[in-house]
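Dear Dr. H.,

I hope your travels went smoothly. While you were away I took the liberty of generating a structure for the chain from your last submission, since the lab meeting agenda had it listed for discussion. I wanted you to have the full record in hand beforehand rather than looking at slides cold. The sequence, exactly as received, is reproduced here:
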Amino acid sequence: MKATQTAAFVAWAAAGLLGVGGPARAGQTPTARAETAPAQEKDPFEREEEPAPPLADPLQGVNRAFFHFNDKLYFWVLKPVARGYKSVLPQGARVGVGNFFSNLGMPMRMFSCLLQGDLKCTGTELARFGVNTTVGVLGFGDPAKSWLKLRKRHADFGQTFGVWGMGPGWYLNWPLLGPSCGRDTLALPLNAALDPATFLPGAGLIQKVNYTSLHLGEYEELLRAALDPYVAIRDAYNQHRRHSVQTRE
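The corresponding predicted structure, in token form, is as follows:
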């Protein structure tokens, strides 16, 4: 799978079928981006990332059952709701909602960076929160990125455990949550405890619907491109999480 395909693929897979992620760029769908992006020649000196070692999957039967459950839930429930939500709320507003929840998640990212010994990332997260909460009006805007070029680090406690040397363990596909592994599952309570959105009634559902409304069509495209979607998502998730631990991105 090409790097660009993997990146788009993982944007959905790593967050889970019902997961939360960053907003799409305003005014462009994945297809539009592919059609309008200029062709780039491959750099002969660029090193390609080595494939991740296969992720153990001894519970594949159960994982596949949960994968199909999530798949049906997406097509029968989440997608129709997200389409209705999209028809009511303009894209700019939905991007703002995504920014708001991302800003709320600062404590989880900041402490993850701190525990990884990355003081630059820790300071960046604090600065982004201060700027976006004030100038960005409670985080609905992201002037820290657009004006100050301070970019969010996608840090979490699963990544932190990996930086500390913990292996991924077995692959797991949870209902509602989607792709995971033993290490990332162990980190879920810590991630949730340091994300204020966890304690806001209905926030999780709004996040899921809002995220999906900004990425409609990506999962369908992923299914069409894969011979076995379950295996493709598992391998993409594995590659993505290995990359996040090695590069701390």
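Two observations you may find useful: The chain has one domain: 55-247. The beta strands are 171-174, 178-181.

With kind regards,
E. W.
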